[in-house]
Request: fold
Amino acid sequence: MRYVMICASPECQFSKSNAYEQGVDQFCPTCGNDLLWKCPHCDRPLRDKSALFCSGCGKRLKNEKAE
Ligand SMILES: [Zn+2]
Ligand SMILES: [Zn+2]
Reply:
């Protein structure tokens, strides 16, 4: 099993996956925002590095763009 992590920032494309034993990283090394490894709404673990919406609840994973 692997963790998939994506950056919470909508402007940042950073993503990675870690082996289970390596655990999860908390922050993006590219921009310093939070890294997501599970859905912030329903806690479902991420499966897809390019996912924009949760496959469990359909809500947006990344933060809204600040304008
Ligand atoms: Zn980032
Ligand atoms: Zn969800």
About this structure: Residues 15 and 49 are 6 Å apart (CA to CA). The mean pLDDT is 94.
